[in-house]
Amino acid sequence: MAVNNLHMRYPCRQLAVVAALIAGATAACADRTVTTHPAATSNVSTPSTAVESAGTSPAVDAADDADLAEVEQLLRDTDADLTAADQDIATPEGDPAQ
Amino acid sequence: MRTKFVATALFALALTASPIAAHAQVREGGASSDQRMDRVRTRCLAQIDRRQRALDAGDTRLDGARALTDAHRAALKQIDAQTSDGLSQLATRIQSDSTVDQMRTDCRSIVEDYRVFALVRPRARVVAASDRVAAAVTRLGKVADRLQQAIDKAKAEGRDTTTASQHLAAMRADTSDAAGHVDGVYDSVIHVTPAEYNANHDVLKTAIANVRAGRSSARDAVSEARQARTALRSPPA
């Protein structure tokens, strides 16, 4: 009898575990929806509103960003070349025969 | 009697030994002179190899240099090739130099007639840097044009664009300064010869200072561009 009761309870436990897992997963999905939705909304809406009020467009901003980033890279490379040129000039070539 | 004999023997020994010692000294002097020449030859050839490697590396750098114009790249690589050819011929001559004076002259020529490290290599860097600033100026011009359009549009919408316009004007002025600083840098350095460098070691100095000033102006222009954009984005008062 005791054995039979155990058998009867075991499937119920399995069901309970599955139900708990489904509930957990649902809650996790709900949490994710709740936490990500406003962030996604703010990411899209904030620049768009600002850009519209500035009279520009995201495409123009992106082009500016790309050009300014390229300019900054060019200037960094320029620095490196000038430093190397300075070092070359400051280093005496000496006399190989000596 | 015995003392006289010893003195005579010593005198005779001295007479016999002197020429032998002198001969040995000459032989030793000759051998060391040859060895010294070989040492100098090896050192000079190593210095030529060092310069050839630097020229090869310089060519590789020129091939990959961003924003360097094709014409400038070609001119710099031609200088490298001429320099390399000259050094190769010099190496051949040094191999066959038979006197110390010849070798001394040829070894000095490695430095004074080519100036790989003091002129050829830094000049290539200065030209590349100058072209980069020029490329930066072109891009800054595009950014300025787009900012102007944005300001015009914002103005048409009734917004106050005074601050943005001021930053844009400053940006254009800085960009123009940058262009002015690097304009002519290439022409001022490309034909400088090793002989001119020998007469004036500061021959690249002005060009370097100009490129540095151009870079600073371009950097200021970037800063003004960012401030103009920030001013345009700020909400209406």
Characterize the overall form of chain A.
rod-shaped
The tally of strands of chain A reads 0
* Largest interface pair: A-B, 33 and 58 residues
**What's the rounded overall pLDDT mean of chain A?**
62
Strand fraction of chain A equals: under 5%
Radius of gyration of chain B, in angstroms, nearest whole number: 33 Å
β-strand amount of chain B: under 5%
Percentage of helical residues of chain B? over 70%
Cα-based radius of gyration of chain A, to the nearest Å: 34 Å
End-to-end gap of chain B: 130 Å
Q: pLDDT under 50 segments of chain A (min length 5)?
A: 1-13, 20-53
* Low-pLDDT segments, ≥5 res of chain B: 10-29
Distance from N terminus to C terminus of chain A (CA atoms, Å) equals 108 Å
Number of helical segments with 4 or more residues of chain B: 8
Dominant shape of chain B:
rod-shaped
Biggest pleated-sheet summary of chain B? none
Q: What is the oligomer described by this structure?
A: heterodimer
How would you describe this protein?
The complex is a heterodimer of chains A (98) and B (237). Chain A has 2 helices and no strands. Chain A has 98 residues and is an all-alpha fold. Chain A is rod-shaped and about 65 Å long. In chain B, helix 1 (2-64) packs antiparallel against helix 2 (70-96) and helix 1 runs parallel beside helix 3 (100-112). The interface between A and B is large, with 33 and 58 residues.
What is shown here, in short?
The complex is a heterodimer of chains A (98) and B (237). Chain A is mainly alpha-helical and 98 residues long.
Main features:
heterodimer; A: 98 residues; mainly alpha; 2 helices; 0% strand; B: mainly alpha; 8 helices
Itemize the secondary structure elements and their pairings:
The complex is a heterodimer of chains A (98) and B (237).
Chain A: H1 2-54, H2 58-90
Chain B: H1 2-64, H2 70-96, H3 100-112, H4 116-156, H5 162-182, H6 185-189, H7 194-199, H8 205-233
Helix pairs in contact in B: 1-2, 1-3, 1-4, 2-3, 2-4, 4-5, 4-8, 5-8
